[in-house]
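Cont'd.
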Amino acid sequence: MTRVVDANSTVEFDELAEKHGSGLLLAYFWTTWSDQCQQMTQVVEELSKELPQVLCVKVEAESVPEISLRYEVTAVPTFIFIKNKQKIHRVDGAKAAELTKKVRHHADMNASPPPPLPVLNDKPKEDLNTRLKNLISSSSCMLFMKGTPTEPKCGFSRQIVEILNKRNIDYATFDILEDNEVRQGLKKYSDWPTYPQLYHDGELMGGLDIVKEMDEAGEIESTLPIKQSLDERLKSLINKAPVMLFMKGSPDEPRCGFSRTICGILKDEGIKFHSFDILEDNEVRQGLKKFSNWPTYPQLYSKGELIGGLDIVKELQESGELKEMIED
Amino acid sequence: MAITSEGLEKKLREELECTHVELVDESGGCGAKFSALIVSNKFEGKPLLQRHRMVNACLAEELKSIHAFSMKTLTPAKWEEQQGKS
């Protein structure tokens, strides 16, 4: 008995959800052309053998757009977990391990506690000093603090964050309250007894007092990296290569039909291009829509100028103007 | 509220003074996938990018509930020329 079925219409889908009630329904949004989906179909089939109580419903995302719209599915593969006709979880992309873990978890009706944490002992333990060294250098400007920039848990940490934010510094943080080993270890490693601690290019700059002093002397901006504004970032991205395509997925693994088609056209025309996967960066995804006043993806740029979306590229190809327009 | 071809066509004709609009509901009736051919005098002298922006602005509300929308934008002269060919 197979528990993988297809839903070819909204009505069919809703009937299946109705019938399955409080059991786990895994809605799997796929397309015929995606290699990632082919892999994930096998994963889903394996899962359904292991967990026959789970109903796996395959939805061809492009042919049943209403369901895709309902669950805000704009790329494949996407998995929506449903119980009692309500969405309870989602997994975006071909993440077999994460999907398997989440399905096993939600398949158990009484599963409220999360699955036990993996046992750390069987993993070779990274030497603490190596770990600290890597942490300190994990970003050009690194702040070890109590809490997070949005929720500092100590007045000194709050003040140092305020200064860095005011000066528009590009920094990353580590919350020492979450990791006692790091908390104690770093004090010894850097021979500095308190937090916060600010590092630049792997070197300790100091604590709050030093940063305050630097701020008063007007030295912060000349020493630490300044955060690029989103506009500047977008501008440098669209100019990263002579021809830039902002798409869902990559040319080898497109995750939306429009993105796939536009890659095909560029290839057919022999146009070399670089691509950026907007699914991997929501700031760029939302920002570029506003920046270029263009609401959808894919977006094609030539020398930093927006050419347009798929419809325009298609039209330009049909009229034979595409290559010329891009090479001008 | 489901989006219909008729509703979209009406709005396009009124706001963009379209002389010809063809809408195809490719969703099988649920109103989530359309393709459109839009002919308007307002497109005259404007690059494709600007034409698409005009349509996107005109249908901004509706596009929120449409999963996929593709369009072709033509000036009346170009439209007639294409008609002549086929």
